[in-house]
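Protein Record: Sequence and Backbone Structure Tokens
======================================================
Tokens: labelled as protein backbone structure tokens, with as many entries as the chain has residues.
Question of interest: how does this chain fold, as expressed in backbone structure tokens?

___
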Amino acid sequence: MASTEGCCPPGSLPSYVDASYTPKGHLSSIGDADVYVTGTSRDTTEAVIVFPDVWGWNTGRIRAIADGFAECGYKTIIPKVLVPSLDGGTDGDGLPPNYNIGENFDEFKQWVTKIPFDSRILPKVKTIVEGLKADGVERIVVLGFCWGVWAACHTAVAFPAEVVATGGAHPSLKLEGLFGGDGSVFTGVKCPVLLLPASNDSAEEYDLPEGKYVKLFAGPTESVRFDSEVHGFVPRGDISNETTKAAVEKAMSLLIEFTNKSFAPKTKLF
């Protein structure tokens, strides 16, 4: 029986689009890369890139999350790179709303493995990084959620001079196995890393000091576990539940603090 844990573990939250939120940014393009852009950096040499989960650039609260970084003084970009989408995806990117990965794993695997990082995602990310640099950006924090942490870590490997920190919530670094990798590529992550695994994200993979993936990173690494929540809670958890709302707020505070410290000169993160 094929494993169904190549991305989100069992018990993870489904996708949804939060229609009650009005994004503060706008849609744009950098070269041939479509992006959601929000905010203006106080320091024009700094920017944040946020990779979404597999439901794409308009899943759940992902644009509200980007707007949160913008409110802290950072130009923030969500790239649209999960294309071609599956059955139209969510707003043309990634998976369609309410898609159940566990119930459709073979289809999911066939789709996601057609979007490898080096040949499909990296060219667009390179265009975005070059566009930011042309605007004076010198330092970039790259964060993600689920699939997005996998993409963020690959970006840190590809752009070691520009990416000063990476990580994110409920990581799905095990995606590397779907592409035939063993995770050794992540030894190329030289910058600081912050991971926020949820209760059903494997401790054997993400907990310090011996987690399969966290021990690969060459840069200083911190892992903060959210035992009250399940995979997907930051962009997709039900914040009418007070426990989940508090967890989302804590996760965002940790990510913003991590970003602030990563841009601060000569600051020891961990």
User: Anything to note?
Assistant: The chain has a mean pLDDT of 91. Strands lie at 26-30, 33-38, 46-51, 75-79, 139-145, 163-169, 193-196, 221-223. The longest strand covers residues 139-145. The chain is about 30% helix and 15% strand.
